[in-house]
Design brief:
This protein is α/β, with parallel strands linked by helices. The chain is built from ten helices and twelve strands. The chain has two domains: 227 residues, P-loop containing nucleotide triphosphate hydrolases (Rossmann fold), CATH 3.40.50.300; 72 residues, no CATH class. The strands form two sheets. The chain has an eight-stranded mixed sheet with strand order 6-7-8-3-9-10-12-11, sandwiched between helices. Strands 2-1-4-5 form a four-stranded antiparallel sheet, with helices on one face. The protein binds iron/sulfur cluster. The site of iron/sulfur cluster has 13 residues, from loops.
């Protein structure tokens, strides 16, 4: 398990397993993931598509769609194991109030038949018991906060650009002032300029509101500037975890190295872009031992066994046999 530094912990995820029971087998989408998020910290979770990032996010906010199920593990939020709460209590006490989410693909997440103002106001009316007028006053504030003209509250989603819709999603996630926001691929389908604007907005809001953020992405370059800590997920398991500096300047796991080497560089010598050969495993039948083994150029016979988690420098952990003491 990855370590738990309990003092400032806002969220502690301990050995969480979330499986999907399909007709063709059990998909082990999240398979024993542990990490800690401290108050006011930004944690970037990165990995290729299909590695379990979104399932992990949905597990934390308890919205895993059927046939998925959290089969074991513990998730502590402000010291309470929220997996022990009833659905009703979680909905009333935690979701949106304490942990909110910016969903992937704002284009589909907003309801096309309501104005964006109505959709944000609904959260405030339901959870805070505000009147429609009071809720709308807050909606205008929230839209200004995310850089949208408050008059756009009366627009329907199709009247807004992709970037504006994503800002609306962020405004909705902030409506109840939660201490933790999970942003799942918040810039997917946006062009690079708008991507940069959304990332800057998240960074600014995180500082102003002193909230914690879990930012989930397949693009490691996207979280470089905003994340304090970075966790690398591969085939349902965390393979490396450390500060952003440790991960970007001293990556150790062969998968992390491969991900970083595949990011195009703007400066320096022009070199051939590297790539990771192969594809992630079918999570119904993951390889025994290290799940990266079939794609790893350093693999050895020992890698058929589950690798240990090793602290290679203070706070920097890697799950790989290369670093095990002989
Ligand atoms: Fe490669 Fe083995 Fe390390 Fe897995 S445990 S990443 S196969 S060296």
């Amino acid at each position: 398990m990855f370590p738990v530094l309990a003092s400032e912990a806002l969220l502690e995820v301990k050995d969480v397993k979330t499986y999907f029971y399909t007709t063709t087998g059990v998909v082990k989408a999240v398979d024993g993931v542990s990490f800690t998020l401290n108050k006011g910290e930004v944690l970037g979770i990165a990995g290729e598509s299909g590695c379990g990032k979104s399932t992990l996010a949905y597990s934390i906010i308890r919205l895993v769609p059927p046939p998925g199920k959290i089969v074991s593990g513990e998730i502590y939020f402000e010291g309470r194991n929220v997996l022990k709460l009833s659905d009703e209590s979680f909905r009333k006490e935690i979701r949106w109030k304490k942990i909110s989410m910016v969903f992937q693909g704002a284009m589909n997440a907003l309801n096309p038949v309501y104005t964006v103002g109505d959709q944000i106001a609904e959260v405030l009316i339901l959870h805070k018991g505000l009147t429609k007028k009071e809720a709308y006053n807050k909606v205008y504030e929230l839209l200004s906060l995310v850089g949208i003209d408050p008059k756009r509250a009366h627009s329907y989603p199709h009247e807004l650009s992709g970037g504006m819709k994503q800002r609306v999603m962020i405004a909705m996630a902030l409506a109840l002032n939660p201490p933790l926001v999970i942003a799942d691929e918040p810039t997917t389908a946006l062009d690079v300029v708008v991507q940069a604007q959304i990332m800057n907005l998240l960074k600014k809001l995180q500082k102003e509101l002193r909230m914690s953020i879990i930012l989930i992405t397949h693009d490691l370059s996207l979280i470089a500037e905003i994340a304090d800590k970075v966790a690398i997920l591969y085939a349902g398991k965390l393979v490396e975890y450390g500060t952003a500096k440790q991960i970007y300047y001293n990556p150790q796991h062969p998968y992390t190295k491969g991900l970083l080497a595949s990011i195009p560089r703007l400066k320096g010598e022009i070199t051939k872009l590297e790539w990771i050969p192969g594809v992630p495993p079918d999570l119904r039948f993951p390889p025994p031992g290290c799940r990266f083994e079939p794609r790893c150029k350093y693999r050895m016979p020992k890698c058929k066994e589950e690798p240990p988690i090793i602290e290679i420098e203070p706070g920097h952990y890697v799950a790989c046999w290369l670093y095990a003491k002989k």
